[in-house]
Amino acid sequence: MEPHISKFANVTKVTTHVLQEMKLKNEKIAMLTAYDFSMARLLDMAGIDVILVGDSASNVMAGHTSTLPITLNEMIYHATSVVRGVKRALVIVDMPFGTYQGNSKEALSSSIRIMKESGADAVKMEGGREVLESVDRILSAGIPVMGHLGLTPQSIHKFGTYVVRATEENEANKLVEDAHLLEKAGCFGIVLEKIPAKLAAQVSKEIRIPIIGIGAGPGADGQVLVLHDMLGITQEFSPRFLRRYHNLSEEIQGSVMSYIKDVKTMDFPNEREQY
Ligand code: KIV
Predict the structure, then answer these.
(1) pTM for this one?
(2) Ligand 1 pocket: which of 58, 66, 67 to mutate (most atoms <8 Å of CB)?
(3) Which of 94, 112, 119, 232 has its CA 20 to 30 A from that of 268?
(4) What positions carry a catalytic annotation?
């Protein structure tokens, strides 16, 4: 395994304040998703800064075609499993669709359930001005909030497609305005998904809190990818921004095929593999 290349490798627990320090010291923030104990433990041991229990669990864990169906109880289950595997990384949990939009009281009780039952460090929610009342209310309870702008998958039925967002001036202006509103409200960071690199770089310069990009170019203060995509477990999803570090799908299938052959031919178990 490669040695740490981080000035923050000795930090025993990453907090939202550490992320702010990373931005100030120009160190890029590395964030990945995880949904279960074993993977979260591996990511944490490898030195990842932030683990996002993303509602992408709805796709990669549950096999849904969007992030909309996953429930609060399911997100809490994933988050609780992740937290058990993590010592150092900051753990952020996505608030699922329908638990914060339009009702700040419900948003507060959803976020309190996430924090209380899972032991996570923070929550993330999609949207700008439209969710500001919920953001304010959650922050007033002392719960750290990360925003999410640009392509917001919970609004896929409004967008109609997963194409790059904010390419037009009015949408870009709204995104910049929303980023400022979220910062002013007290969010500790913002995810910018699938927007032009130039726009993400501009927002990262203008805004003091860390900006984490996914498909938003190198100008963001950090990067996030969905773990199953970057490990090559998922195959069908192949956007330009995705770098695959492994082809685990082939490796897993190869191992399973070898196992099937060994069982069928009675090669497994051998004399040393029995009592
Ligand atoms: O749910 C998720 O995995 C996310 C990332 C893509 C940022 O929100």
Answers:
(1) 0.97
(2) 67
(3) 232
(4) 193
